[in-house]
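FW: tagging you since you asked about this chain on Friday. Here's the raw sequence from the shared folder, copied in full. Didn't touch anything.
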Amino acid sequence: MNNTAYSDKEILGDALATAKFSTDNYNTFSNECAHENVRSTMMNILNDEHSIQNDVFHMMSSKGYYPTPPADESKVSEAKQRYQSGVK
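HL: got it, structure written out here
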């Protein structure tokens, strides 16, 4: 038996990766549903999965496990202009 203890960072990192994988799959499932009631259920699950992912991300960020440096303001402005005009 393996008695390896995992750190909080490893556990949360695994949870975040799993949540990202799940949202990718539920997004595909919801896009490919032929029946509206099944699609609606998939969309509800997708929303729940996004909430879980968001919670895990914020927990990791608050503990310093997922550093997110501030974006350069000029790049933010440039991205806003590009997407507001519909040009990619």
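FW: The first helix runs from residue 8 to 31.
HL: agreed, and The chain has one domain: 8-84.
FW: great, closing this out.
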